[in-house]
Design brief:
The protein is mainly alpha-helical. It is about 55% helix and about 0% strand. It folds into two domains: about 60 residues, no CATH class; about 40 residues, no CATH class. The longest helix has 20 residues. The protein has four helices and no strands. It is elongated, with a radius of gyration of 21 Å.
């Protein structure tokens, strides 16, 4: 696909979306950031982006810090419930569901 072919379609699309300021690079950055948010590893991001080094991937992983905080909070909540003897974490279900009994 030529650059001209792409831009002949991209310019009217971004204008119709009310975002004439968006560049192809913005779309690329958004796609890589979203891949990082959905769990792509640095190596996967590197391959997808075609970068020579993983250091260049750090810019696309910035948004995963919020996800990491949510994951840490969820793990902490699961542990707190488990340690309290009320439930045991059930990773397959995505939430604690198994009741503990005495001696377990």
């Amino acid at each position: 696909m030529s650059v001209r072919y792409l831009m002949d379609r991209y310019r009217p699309a971004r204008k119709a979306a009310g975002r004439p300021d968006l560049t192809i690079h913005h779309l690329r950055h958004t796609a890589l950031t979203m891949a990082g948010q959905h769990g792509a590893t640095a190596a996967e991001l590197q391959a997808r982006a075609g970068h020579a080094s993983q250091a260049a991937m750090a810019i696309y992983q910035h948004a995963t810090l919020d996800r990491d905080k949510r994951l840490a909070d969820a793990i902490g909540d699961s542990y707190t419930r488990w340690a309290g003897g009320r439930t045991s974490p059930d990773p397959a279900a995505g939430n604690p569901t198994l009741e503990l009994t005495a001696g377990s």
